[in-house]
């Protein structure tokens, strides 16, 4: 059976606290149920992943756990009619890395309805450079558009603007013609935010 490395998180049941993570060699039998198995090629480190690994917040709700809330890679086995061996796929969210073993491993096994085909014009590196933060930011922009909040309606405030979601949102909105006001607790990032397209930077 193929073996691969994973970040492995366990819990000390007696002390009721999370143990420090370890890098462990595991196999497919250690993964959870799912109808598609993916060789993970790229993943990202999100804020939630940081909390999961350090145990500073109760992000992980099932043990043992492999963190990593997103990944992209190649399908190696599939019982789904939607995906075939060799397909390039992408995953964001669905409790992966929290209640279902995630992307900080050489392999992942997940439900097919959590996956999407990776766009042909995106490399895995590009997909994960956008990552969950970029995906979330775009969902926010789409929601604004669906509610009729277009550039002619006036300035748009982006909170947490220097963070992952916020910085991508600033860039997307500016490129779409919005007047972006960036709110941040890190005023030293003003130059960065204005380079992304913010017209004004304010203290949160």
What's the short version?
With 204 residues, this protein is α+β, with helices and mostly antiparallel strands. The chain contains four helices and twelve strands, in the order βββββαββββαβαβαβ.
Structure commentary:
By secondary structure, the protein is an alpha+beta fold. The protein is 25% helix and 27% strand. It has a five-stranded antiparallel beta sheet. The mean pLDDT is 95.
List the helices and strands and how they pair.
Elements: E1 3-8, E2 11-12, E3 17-18, E4 22-27, E5 36-42, H1 47-54, E6 70-78, E7 88-92, E8 107-110, E9 115-117, H2 124-146, E10 156-158, H3 164-175, E11 180-184, H4 190-196, E12 200-203
Helix pairs in contact: 2-3
Q: Give the helix proportion (percent range).
A: 10-25%
What class do helices, strands and sheet pairing give?
alpha+beta
Give the low-pLDDT segments: none
Shape: globular
Tally of individual helices: 4
Q: Profile the largest sheet.
A: 5 strands, antiparallel
Give the averaged pLDDT, no decimals. Answer: 95
User: What oligomeric arrangement do these chains adopt?
Assistant: single chain
Rounded to an integer in angstroms, the radius of gyration calculated over CA atoms is 19 Å
Q: Reading side by side through the largest sheet, how are the strands ordered?
A: 8-5-6-7-9
H and E string: EEEEEHEEEEHEHEHE
**Separation of the first and last Cα atoms:** 53 Å
Strand-residue proportion: 25-35%
According to DSSP, the number of beta strands is 12
